Amino acid sequence: xxxxxxxxxxxxxxxxxxxxxxxxxxxxxxKPGRAVCAGxxxxxxxxxxxxxxxxxxxxxxxxxxxxxYGGVLCSTCxxxxxxxxxxxxxxx
Length: 92
Known about the structure:
The chain has about 90 residues and is α+β, with helices and mostly antiparallel strands. Helices cover about 25% and strands about 15% of the residues. It is built from 3 helices and 2 strands; from the N terminus they run ββααα. It has a two-stranded antiparallel ribbon. It starts with 11 loop residues before the first strand and ends with a helix.
């Protein structure tokens, strides 16, 4: 019998074959939700929907967009933030 925490119906059962030729069941959680923009709440482009275990295997360039606030702000909110940062000091 498996651990009680693994008996949940929300976990996906994945069949894996061991090097000895035996088929075993691994229990995996579902996909996480989409990463959303901290400014407007829209889903972020370029951020994969993977669990942290799977994200560790990716290269840095595939984890997040390579720009300021990449993976935190969408492109629209980022351009607004940059415009505010440039315009505000000019007015003082």
